[in-house]
Structures are given as structure tokens and as C-alpha cells.
């Protein structure tokens, strides 16, 4: 991953109109796509959200998410490989934590965008209801 000192860059690469994003190589774009692919699975997002409260071992993650042990282990491995979580051996337990807290900023941006879209759809629905009452 390419690192940036910009704290607003959730994946270590600043993508703005002025930075020449059209000049990014297919390799860099592939890295960005891979990062988003890892976060595009519901169970992995559940695990990431669970870790927002701090370090957890596999048993705690299983309990909090309701996912099966094999499923959690598989997703934690992918999240670790992507550099989203860290894995630390503590005695007989393995503890997982968020490696890059900027992932939460990214999630906030996405959630805010979804809220805006839903508010706009709701406005259209209300307009349609008013129109419908006129008949």
C-alpha cells in the first residue's frame, strides 16, 4: 500500500480530482479495489465494527457477531492479510485489533452518503404521496 501523511486518506492514497487520479497505474487501482473488496462483505464489516471498541479474541468476536468460529477465522485471516486488522499472540489467545483506524472514517463517509441518498429518496416519496392525494 502506498502511504500518505494525509489523515483523510483512509487507504493510504489520497484520491482527489487535483491529484491526477486518472494517472494512477492499474496496479495501484487494483490495490484500491482489493481494499474495498475486503470491506465489501457483511461478516467482515461486522467484525470490523466489533473491533471498533478495542482488541478482542476470537471467542469474543464470535459472541458479539453471532458468526461461527470457522467463518470468523476465515474473515479475520483476510482482514489481517489486507492490513485492516492486526493479529497478536497473547498467551494461548490470539487478539485482533484494528490496524488502521482510518477505516472508520471511510465507513463514516459511506454511511453519510447512504443517509443523504435515503433522505433524497424519502423526499421523492413524500412528493409522490402528495401528488397521489390530488387524485
What does this structure look like?
This protein has about 140 residues and is mainly alpha-helical. Helices cover about 55% and strands about 10% of the residues. Strands 1-3-2 form a 3-stranded antiparallel beta sheet. Strand 2 (about 85-90) and strand 3 form a beta hairpin. The chain is flat and about 70 Å long.
Structural class designation: mainly alpha
The succession of helices and strands, N to C, reads HHEHHEEH
C-alpha Rg, in Å? 19 Å
Number of strands: 3
- The oligomeric status of these chains comes to single chain
Instruction: Provide the helix percentage.
Output: 55-70%
Q: What does the overall shape look like?
A: flat
Mean pLDDT: 86
Query: How large is the count of helical segments?
Result: 5
How would you write the strand order of the largest sheet?
1-3-2
In whole angstroms, how far apart are the ends? Answer: 58 Å
What share of the residues does DSSP label as strand, in percent? 5-15%
Largest sheet: number of strands, sense, barrel closure: 3 strands, antiparallel
Low-confidence stretches: 1-13
Amino acid at each position: 500500500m502506498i502511504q500518505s501523511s494525509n489523515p483523510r486518506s483512509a487507504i493510504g492514497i489520497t484520491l482527489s480530482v487535483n491529484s491526477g487520479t486518472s494517472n494512477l497505474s492499474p496496479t495501484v487501482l487494483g490495490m484500491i479495489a482489493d481494499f474495498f473488496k475486503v470491506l465489501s462483505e457483511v461478516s467482515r464489516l461486522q467484525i470490523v465494527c466489533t473491533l471498533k471498541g478495542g482488541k478482542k479474541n476470537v471467542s469474543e468476536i464470535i459472541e458479539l457477531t453471532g458468526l461461527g468460529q470457522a467463518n470468523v477465522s476465515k474473515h479475520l485471516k483476510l482482514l489481517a492479510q489486507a492490513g485492516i486488522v492486526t493479529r497478536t499472540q497473547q498467551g494461548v489467545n490470539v487478539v485482533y485489533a484494528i490496524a488502521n483506524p482510518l477505516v472508520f472514517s471511510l465507513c463514516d463517509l459511506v454511511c453519510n452518503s447512504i443517509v443523504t441518498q435515503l433522505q433524497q429518496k424519502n423526499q421523492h416519496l413524500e412528493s409522490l404521496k402528495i401528488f397521489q392525494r390530488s387524485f
